[in-house]
Amino acid sequence: MAKKTVASLQTSSKRLTKAIKMVRSPKSGAYTFAESVMAPELVDQWLSKK
Of 22, 1, 19, 18, whose CA–CA distance to 9 is shortest? Predict the structure, then answer.
């Protein structure tokens, strides 16, 4: 499964990161991309979830 942090976003005083991961659909077996914008500290935790 490919995982990659794509961009760091700056908004006022908060630093945010956009993370994208490939997720395999249990129904069809096709891959889709899940995107999320979060604090940099939470990226590893989000990527490790199934």
Answer: 18
